[in-house]
Design brief:
3 domains; mainly alpha; about 400 residues; about 75% helix; globular; Rhopdopsin 7-helix transmembrane proteins
Length: about 400
């Protein structure tokens, strides 16, 4: 029989997931039915980014709802549903803002201002809730003062964004319909939202310190869980970092490609959280990290070698007809011929550092195969097989059956 708390948990999960899906698909449907020009915004948020954030919102709400039902005592699932809801209502608000602003009437402008204001609120709240995840993952618990302080800061900043007079934080062409108090921009030399956004980067080192401290004091299982979260988050942050880096070296405004990559890659984070908390294939993370690092190093190595060969051979063959083409062809052939060797060496070097268990297991099995060639004593062989299996895969029990020799 279902108890009251269980019904409450299930209701929260189903309602949160359903509202997220409806809001996400509602935003996509509205953009299809009414492809009005996107209202100019500070983050290059267009239709492609909208799809990315829809995927991330649904992923967060879906995995979070599963965790709420299966691990109701863990606050991570509840927070993930809230993050998914916030992202879904963010893109729905952005879609409504563009559609109503395109009407060109006083009522349309008023509705666009309200929708834009809600978009700012959901974006701010959802973004800060995203940052709260590392503080409570994977146990769902955090230090009381740190947690309460972070929540207080989130609520305070969200309220300040909501009442900041003048242009909205996301949509500089739309005035805040609920702005109150004095306009501090002349005093600060910038908008309050810009000041807060710049100051919010101070939160990242605090989160990193807490994360590292938790990892150092964690047990084996919790370390594997933290690795899952860290790997997925790194992939997501890489997208937005590329966009920020390109904006730093280019006079052009931030495009939506980086924001879209962040959205789609961000959908990996809830998947990683689900794997970590439910412990499904938990220990595969070492191999994933090893493969990721290996291919990143391999790509960089090949690019460096290829570029060096093209430059050297191109200079050596500069006086020959078609020398540059020959240099490119020769460099390509050299890379193709050496790819396997370079990949093997890079992979072994990375495995020694990031996938030590698998590396040690392979060495143990290889050494056993060498001994097996000369071993004839079945008693010694039986003990050796058990020891090797125990070292390689660490089973809870080992049994060995030997077939009787035929008469």
């Amino acid at each position: 029989m279902t108890t009251g708390p269980a019904r409450r948990d299930r209701a929260f999960a189903v309602i949160g997931w359903g509202a997220t899906v409806l809001a996400a698909f509602g935003a996509i449907g509205l953009r299809i039915v009414d492809p009005a020009p996107v209202v100019p915004n500070n983050f290059g948020f267009g239709d492609l980014a909208l799809l990315g954030f829809a995927a991330m919102a649904i992923a967060f709400a879906s995995v979070g709802a599963q965790l709420v039902v299966r691990r109701p005592a863990n606050a991570v699932g509840w927070l993930m549903v809230i993050v998914g809801l916030s992202h879904a209502f963010t893109i729905l608000g952005a879609a409504i803002t563009s559609s109503t602003a395109a009407v060109g009437t006083a009522d349309g402008d008023r509705l666009a201002a309200y929708a834009g204001w809600l978009t700012v609120i959901f974006t701010t709240f959802g973004g800060f809730m995203w940052l709260l995840l590392p503080l409570i993952f994977p146990t769902g618990r955090a230090r009381g003062r740190l947690f309460r302080g972070f929540i207080a800061v989130v609520l305070l900043l969200t309220a300040m964004f909501g009442i900041q007079p003048g242009p909205l934080h996301l949509f500089p062409s739309i005035a805040n319909p609920f702005g109150v108090g004095p306009d501090l921009r002349p005093t600060l030399g910038m908008s309050f939202s810009t000041l807060v956004v710049n100051s919010s980067f101070l939160i990242a080192p605090v989160i990193a310190i807490v994360f590292v401290s938790r990892y150092r004091s964690a047990g084996d299982v919790e370390r594997q869980q933290l690795k899952w979260f860290l790997l997925a988050s790194s992939v997501a942050v890489a997208g937005i970092a590329i966009a920020a880096g390109s904006a730093a070296v280019s006079p052009e405004p931030v495009g939506e490609a980086g924001v879209a990559v962040f959205g789609f890659a961000g959908a990996l984070v809830p998947v990683a959280i689900g794997i970590a908390i439910l412990r499904h294939r938990l220990y595969d993370i070492d191999r994933l990290i090893s493969r990721t690092v290996a291919y990143v190093v391999l790509t960089g190595t090949l690019v460096a070698i290829y570029g060096s060969l093209v430059i050297v051979l191109g200079a050596a063959m500069a006086k020959l007809a078609g020398g540059q083409a020959i240099a490119v062809a020769a460099s390509t052939l050299a890379m193709a011929a050496s790819f396997g060797t370079i990949r093997g060496r890079v992979q072994r070097a990375v495995d020694r550092r990031f996938d030590r268990g698998r590396y040690d297991a392979n060495r143990t099995v290889t050494a056993f195969a060498e001994r097996l060639r000369d071993e004839v004593d079945l008693t010694v062989l039986r003990a050796d097989v058990g020891a090797v299996v125990q070292l390689a895969v660490a089973p809870s029990r080992v049994d060995l059956w030997l077939r009787r020799p035929s008469q």
